[in-house]
Sequence to fold (483 residues):
Amino acid sequence: MKQKVVLNVAQVDARAVIAIIGGGFTGAAVAYHLGRDEGLDARVLVFEPREKIGMGVAYESLDPVHRINVPAAKMSLDPGEPESFTQWIAENAAVAGDDKVAWPDGSIYPRRRVFGDYVHAQVSPLIESGRIEHLRTSVIRVEPIGARWRIDAEDGSTVEADYVVIATSHPSPAAPKPLAAFLEGHPRFIADATKPDALKPVRPDDAVLVVGNGLTSADVIAALVDGGHKGQITAVSRRGLRSRGHASKVQEAFGDFTTRPIRSVRLLSKRIREAIRDAAIFDLSWHAVIDAVRAQGRQIWTNLPVEERKRLVRHLRPFWDVHRFRIAPQVEASVDSAIASGQLDVLAASVGAVCYNGAKIRTVLRLAHQRGTQIRDFDAVVVTTGPAHGGIIESQPYLAGLSAGGFITADPAHLGIACDDHALATSASGEATPGLYIAGPLARGTFGELMGLPQVSEHAAFVASEVALAIAGPRGESATDAA
Fold:
């Protein structure tokens, strides 16, 4: 039996201890800001089982087709240094040999791994100097112990921390129940396309069903097409919407959605449509309006009552996602080429019954708008429905434990974990849990738009500042008092 190693950092020195759970981009960014704070008297621990901090699911990909979805000039670890990434690229010749990286408008879209390497390069000096400590293990349990938090890790170690930042990765996609129940164990049923080499089982001539039409779907299709796939590809989603590309020219954001507060989804939708019509007068595309909505997203979200937020998630989120989260032009070109050649068929449909027809996967596709059904045979099925945010608490044992203890709960719109305006986790009764912070996309139920990297970067800096302020001031009540 493996003996548990207890590392009580309070016995090492008297500094405050900050434990960050998750070392993807969000966790790395929070650690980066804390580690650079020379006035901060604290130890910064990052729990991340991967070899490198800053990669995460998105930026560890080695697939050359996977690119960042916005120009490099808009990507940075530090919102206060917006040119950091492009400068690092130039100094390190990081895109040398990538003949597809540049686009005619002068913008560049490096491969995602390049951005991951950049983030890791910024964090590495802080790790080497001891300002950040990387613990290569996963967290299995977090529970209060007096005024602190006890963290049990998968490797058997235990740490006590004064402050905990939850920066956990997105949960895996949730496959439609008919597929998950029937195809479990099938060699070419790919339930999570974000995993490394996920598409390796797909054969060149396979007929492929792609479930979902968002960013991941576009990446999957581009990877297949650019990799020489010859078989037919069918992509389905309930509305048949697929992720859009970027504007053909640089545009300033257009539209004001906060001067006159918007209190309903119906009015928000109306105002966006009006702004798009007005933008056209100035030869601006819808991209400029959506950029304005994104920039004002926090205030727009805050102005909406909780019930209207839920309504927005139910009815407008699919439309928002395909317009807000745009695909790199290189990926768009591959997808458009597949559609033009007839290799790719995009349907507004959902998956109904599933059975086998010999070696084929026979699937009933229920067409939207009561247009009946289609029966199609496939050799492979790839799920690209995006993270199952509604199930985040159940996806991690330590989160489930915190929920059972009354320290966290899902936000009302089920986009992540509930927190207050200081990013402190809140219980089902709305009480803040001292010392327990929510960072990144999991906090968007409170902060609104937190899926795009620029917004996540800003939020990470904000969370780091909140933790630093808490350390500088009174420690407040204990974790158990907040239960």
Q: What stands out?
A: Residues 1-6, 475-483 have pLDDT under 50 and may be disordered. The CA atoms of residues 394 and 400 lie 5 Å apart. The chain is about 35% helix and 20% strand. The longest strand covers residues 344-357.
